[in-house]
Amino acid sequence: MTDILAPLAYLNGQPTAKAKLKAKPEHFVVREDLGFELAGEGEHLMVRIRKTGENTSFVANEIAKFCGVKSKDVSWAGLKDRHAVTEQWLSIHLPKGETPDFTAFLAQYPSIEILATTRHNKKLRPGDLTGNEFELTLSEVTDVEDVLKRLEKISTSGVPNYFGAQRFGNEGNNVAEARRWGRDNVRTRNQNKRSLYLSAARSWIFNQIVSARIEQQAFDQILVGDIVLNGDKQQHVEAVPVEGEPQVTAALAGDNTLPTSGKVLDLEQACVDSEPDLMALIRGNRMRHDRRVINLKPDNLTWTSTEDQVTLKFSLDAGCFATAIVRELVEEIPVERVYA
Asked: How many CB atoms lie within 10 A of CB 63?
C-alpha cells in the first residue's frame, strides 16, 4: 500500500520509531461531540450508537431498512472510521413520534450498540459537530522513548494540520479522478462525487502549501503578507508582531485571487500553479477561496506508556485528523485486515 502523504514534510523530522495503529478496533476509539443540546422533541429520532468495525453509512442504511424509512431519512454529522470503536449520533426522520424496539436489530448486529435515544427538531447534516474525542493506542512500538519525546514537543508546538490520507481515497484515487475531471472538463449531476473530488483537490493543494512552509522554515512564524485567524476574524498581516492570538492560515484554493502578499503569496501561488488540472476543476465549479489554520494543537493531550505500547487521549475540532498527530510520532507498520 502506497503512502501518498510520504513526500510531505515533517515538523520534527521523520520519525524513527515504528508502530501499529488500529491493530485492534479498540485501539482507535472516537467519541463524537455535537457541541449543542438536543431539543428532546421534534420529528427526528436521535440515536447515539457505538459501533465496532463498521462503516457509518452501512449502519445508517441498515437502521433505515429496520425502521422502514428511506436511506436519505437517516443522517449523521460525521463519517467515522470503520476499523475503530466509535460513538456518534444518527438522526432518523420519524415524524409521528414513534420509537422502534431495536431489540431484533441489535441481535442481528452485535457490533452495534445503542447508548441513548431522544428527539430533535432538525435533521443532522454533515459538519453539525464541534469535534471528536480520541483514545488511540500505538502497539508494537519499536522506540517508546522517542515517541514520548515527540509527544512532549507536540504538546507545546502542535503538528502540521494536514488532511489525512482518507480524504484522498484508496491509493489517492480521489485526487487522480479530480485531476482527470479537471483535465477533461467532466460535468456531472452526481453531487456526492462532485463534492468528493473538489474536497480532495483543495485538500491536496493545502497540504502542499503547509509542507512548503515547513521546508522553507516558515511554519512556526508569522510573515508579512500572511492571513491569520485572530479570534474569529481573518486578518492580513502588514507588520509583525501581531497583537492577540493569531494563527497562521493557508489557502483552500478557489477561483478568486489569493489574498496573501509578498513571499507568502509567492509560496502559495507556486503550489496552486503546480496543479493545473486540480485548479481547472476548482475554477470550473466556481469554488470560492477559503482559509484553514496550518498548526494543529490537540486539546487535553495526555498519554501513558508500557513496554511496547503508547496510549494517547486528546480532542480535535471537526475537520481535523488524528492521523496527522500519529504521523509525527511513528512510521506505521501495516496491519493486515480480514474482511468478512
From this structure: 24
Catalytic residues: 81
- Topology at the third CATH level for domain 36-120: Pseudouridine synthase (3.30.2350)
Q: Where in the chain is the domain with CATH 3.30.2350.20?
A: 36-120
Q: Helix 191-215 to helix 262-273 angle, to the nearest 10 degrees?
A: 130
- Split the chain (340 residues) into runs of 10 and give each run's mean pLDDT: 89 97 96 96 98 95 96 94 95 95 97 97 95 98 98 97 94 95 91 93 98 96 97 95 96 96 98 98 96 98 97 97 97 78
How far apart are alpha carbons 96 and 165 in whole angstroms?
42
Task: Determine the Cα–Cα distance for residues 46 and 297; give it in Å rounded to an integer.
Answer: 31
Q: Does the model's pTM come out above 0.85?
A: yes
Report residue 266 as a C-alpha cell.
Answer: 509567492
CATH 3.30.2340.10, the chain: domain bounds: 162-293
What pLDDT does 1 receive?
Answer: 60
**Cis status of the peptide bond prior to 298, with omega within 30 of 0:** no
- Domain 162-293: CATH class, spelled out: alpha beta
